[in-house]
Specification:
Elements (H helix, E strand, L loop, with lengths): L3 E7 L3 H12 L6 E8 L5 H11 L3 E6 L4 H11 L4 E6 L3 E2 L3 H12 L3 E10 L4 E4 L10 H10 L9 E4 H6 L14 H12 L3 E13 L12 H19 L6 H18 L9 H13 L1 H7 L9 H11 L3 H20 L1
Parallel strand pairs: 1-2, 1-4, 2-3, 6-9
Antiparallel strand pairs: 4-8, 5-9, 6-7, 6-8
């Protein structure tokens, strides 16, 4: 049984695959298996995967029809044999001691979940910056869940090491396409925070997260607002059943407001090909939605950035046209910052 199963999600990332897979080969910790799930790629990704697997017996390739990220991650879990599992996106890169550092922390602490900092690489500008999301943060679950819902820490799955027995004990799986998209990782991360008997941090960036034009976070995300509502209701049900929902009411309200603000920016991404009328209709739907209007009454605006406070004020007043202008301007600024 390998110590770690690395589960790599692959879809049309042939231009990045060699660098990603080589960073796995170059790991200082060798007791690993690598499960490469090709989610119906239409480029040469499948060929590259087979070539790597032919050179290293630790690599195993699974080809499937395109089913989405949730199904890919779930397939990896089902195939894994390692004591621990880690999720990798195939356009990203691992630091040479990624596996070693996470594994040593897990063994030393007995934690079900180990989280590290990470690097953000902006492909267009060539900038690389480290995160400091875990600095001076408590590993206590209530604090972590609140931080996740506030957006103070990210819910990505790839900067984490999970005890496989913990995942299986609680039957933790990712939601599928059509159930919940774009925030599948956050869905799982909240459950892991709540159910873990122990969580540990590695205060060092070990994962290189590449941001490029075809990244999910850069693309226009259809139905993003409705996926957030689904996430909200699913997490409320989970926390009511397995935790104490009263501890998280304010954080859930903040999530709805902050998510709606991000959805407003999403409408004005340069890659959104919808007509102006369609964008304005989406903006109007969001600002008049009952969940947003109820939550916004409970949220203290001072917890938001100044730019978001301005957008929130316009949204509360349901001033769709000036709101759209402000959101469009803010989104253009964000895209400029990722390029410079």
């Amino acid at each position: 049984m390998p110590a770690i199963s690395l589960l790599v999600a692959v879809y049309n990332t042939s231009q990045y695959l060699e660098q990603c897979l080589q960073s796995i080969v170059d790991q200082s910790f060798s007791d690993i298996e690598v499960i490469l799930v090709n989610d119906g790629s239409t480029d040469r990704s499948g060929e590259y995967l087979e070539a790597f697997a032919a050179q290293d017996q630790r690599f195993r390739v699974i080809h499937q029809t395109n089913q989405g990220l949730g199904a890919v991650r779930n397939r990896g879990i089902e195939e894994a044999k390692g004591t621990y599992i880690a999720f990798i996106d195939s356009d990203d890169v691992l630091a040479p001691h990624y596996c070693e550092a996470l594994y040593e922390k897990a063994k030393m602490t007995g934690a079900d979940l180990v989280i590290s900092e990470y690097w953000i690489q902006f492909e267009q500008s060539k900038r690389t910056i480290p995160t400091t999301l875990l600095a001076e943060r408590s590993a206590e679950k209530t604090s972590l869940i609140e931080a996740l819902l506030h957006g103070d820490i990210t819910g990505f799955s790839w900067n984490k090491l999970y005890r496989r027995a913990f995942i299986e004990e609680h039957d933790i799986r990712f939601p599928l396409r059509g159930e919940l998209e774009n925030i599948e990782d956050q869905y799982v991360t909240l459950r892991c925070f709540s159910l873990s008997r122990g969580i540990a941090f590695v205060h060092e960036p070990l994962y290189y997260y590449r941001v490029h034009l075809s990244s999910i976070v850069q693309r226009y995300q259809k139905q993003y607002f409705h996926h957030g509502l689904t996430f909200y209701h699913a997490q409320r049900l989970f926390l009511t059943e397995y935790d104490d929902i009263s501890l998280y009411e304010k954080a859930l309200d903040f999530f709805i407001v902050n998510h709606t603000l991000h959805c407003m920016l999403n409408e004005w991404k340069s890659q959104n090909a919808l007509s102006l009328r369609e964008k304005l209709d989406h903006m109007r739907e969001m600002v008049t939605h009952e969940a947003f209007q109820d939550a916004v009454k409970q949220v203290e605006p001072s917890k938001l950035t100044s730019r978001k406070r301005m957008i929130l004020f316009l949204a509360k007043c349901r001033l769709v046209y000036p709101l759209s202008a402000a959101a469009s301007s803010y989104q253009k600024w964000i895209e400029y910052q990722t390029r410079k």
